[in-house]
Amino acid sequence: MAERGFVPDPLNLNRVMPAQGSTFYEVCKKCSPEQVSIIYYFGGGHMKLVLTIAGSDSGGGAGIQADLKTFSAHGVYGMSVITSITAQNTMGVLGIEDVSPDMVYLQMKAIFEDLYPDAVKIGMVSNEDIIKMIAKGLKDYNVKNVVLDPVMISKSGSYLLKPEAVEALKKELISLSLVVTPNLMEAGELIGKEIKNISDMKEAAKKILDFGAKAVIVKGGHLTGDALDVFYDGKEFYEITSERIDTKNTHGTGCTFSSAIAANIALGYDLVESIKRAKAYITGAIKHSLAIGHGVGPTNHFWNIKIREV
Ligand SMILES: Nc1ncnc2c1ncn2[C@@H]1O[C@H](COP(=O)(O)OP(=O)(O)OP(=O)(O)O)[C@@H](O)[C@H]1O
Ligand SMILES: Cc1ncc(COP(=O)(O)O)c(N)n1
């Protein structure tokens, strides 16, 4: 059944695709979270572009790999600036090798001078020199719509940001961001106080906003009870909640959530709506997470896309 320029998926896979030549693109508003909810636009030339500046996770569950999968699951065109290469799997991080700051800048130049993104997500930034170079790139190319995930320590306990670089992250990147997405520990590091409850989360959001971000969402994934995140934009607090899913397979949740926010911003949703959509997406990705590997398995980035029944 064709509607508003869309035709049914020719493979009859319960997915809707745009009619040839259509310029219409949107995420399906009618679909329930359990249904196929992405409509792909294949008309060419109209895809939104989203960039991730982050570390590579060889295991594919977090970092650049999670970000690009998330972008694809939202029907946006994904690009990457790699800051560090990690040798990593579901059990831990075996090693980290940082990319040189000059090479980080060159990747940014290559992208911004040709494929200017509609939104940018920043994840693992590793050290002070890389942070300064990213800040320079964002200023040189007047980059807006930055979603900053201040990644510090992996779930498996490895430092992904050198502890002495926390100040540089605060000083150089937060003020260039549309929204910052710390988890409890990261919010605590940024404000120098342990975060234990919702009232602490609100206090942290306020203080981080004072560092110059336009908005902050403090994620409560590591609390108990419902998975409650606190959003603050300087005017209002929103508590964005979902059921807590009982699974150990949560590798890359933060990366996936922040990338989904960036993808939704690129698609044209306002910040609060982008966060609500990203929350629905990460909740589904955790619900359908993958019990692969021997440790903390990854989320399922394509849970909402029915590709083929097997
Ligand atoms: N078990 C869970 N059930 C439902 N939602 C969850 C669960 N764990 C995390 N979340 C949600 O996932 C999103 C990411 O939060 P989380 O606190 O896990 O980020 P993070 O610690 O930065 O992730 P990462 O360690 O992968 O960087 C938030 O919206 C959070 O509420
Ligand atoms: C390259 C990279 N970036 C981010 C994370 C955080 O993800 P998690 O906390 O789930 O390990 C990671 N492990 N690796």
UniProtKB/TrEMBL annotation:
Enumerate the Pfam families for this protein: Phos_pyr_kin
Give a GO biological-process term.
thiamine biosynthetic process
Report the EC number(s), separated by commas if there are several: 2.7.1.49, 2.7.4.7
- SUPFAM superfamilies tied to this protein: Ribokinase-like
Q: Where would one find coiled-coil regions in this protein?
A: none
Pyridoxamine kinase/Phosphomethylpyrimidine kinase domain: residues covered = 57-300
Its pathway? Answer: Cofactor biosynthesis; thiamine diphosphate biosynthesis; 4-amino-2-methyl-5-diphosphomethylpyrimidine from 5-amino-1-(5-phospho-D-ribosyl)imidazole: step 2/3; Cofactor biosynthesis; thiamine diphosphate biosynthesis; 4-amino-2-methyl-5-diphosphomethylpyrimidine from 5-amino-1-(5-phospho-D-ribosyl)imidazole: step 3/3
Q: Tell me a Gene Ontology molecular-function term this record carries.
A: phosphomethylpyrimidine kinase activity
The UniProt keywords, alphabetically, are: ATP-binding, Kinase, Nucleotide-binding, Thiamine biosynthesis, Transferase
User: Reaction(s) catalyzed by this protein?
Assistant: 4-amino-5-hydroxymethyl-2-methylpyrimidine + ATP = 4-amino-2-methyl-5-(phosphooxymethyl)pyrimidine + ADP + H(+); 4-amino-2-methyl-5-(phosphooxymethyl)pyrimidine + ATP = 4-amino-2-methyl-5-(diphosphooxymethyl)pyrimidine + ADP
Tell me where on the tree of life, at the top rank, the source sits. Answer: Bacteria
- Entry GO terms, CC: cytosol
- Class of enzymatic activity (EC top level): transferase
Family according to the record = Belongs to the ThiD family.
Q: Protein name, please?
A: Hydroxymethylpyrimidine/phosphomethylpyrimidine kinase
Say which species the protein is native to: Thermoanaerobacter uzonensis DSM 18761
Provide the taxonomic classification.
Bacteria, Bacillati, Bacillota, Clostridia, Thermoanaerobacterales
